[in-house]
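User: Please predict the structure of the protein below. I'd like the answer in structure-token form so I can feed it into my own downstream comparison script.

Assistant: Understood. Taking the following sequence of 131 residues as input:
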Amino acid sequence: MKSIHRNPETAGIGLRLAHLAEMVATRSSVAWLESHPENFLSNPHAAELLSELSAHYAISLHTVGISVGRLSIHRRNYQKSLTEALLVKFPATAWLMGSAFVRQAAERFVCERPPTAPCIAEYGAEFLARQ
């Protein structure tokens, strides 16, 4: 009897951003991966992990209407989310230094130091050390 936890070698799976690090770590026994590229384009670390997976799996990418103009929207939204995460993480710094100054520093930090882990809660530990 086959295990219900093992995928057949010929099956593929849909790769979601939330499962990316696990796929890199475990190398699940699937034949191919399917994903939406817009999930990875505005996240440099995720794009690196997807590239790493491409050495081990066939990857099928499809989109739901992406264009060059939409890429910049994704990037801006992603950078804004990271900036807001830093401001939430360091409210006392904004209170002491002034929110406009800390926002500018956070925006610069986000551009210079994109995340290296997929979890936004882990981002920015070195933010204050660089200012």
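That's the full token string. The chain has two domains: 12-61, 68-130.
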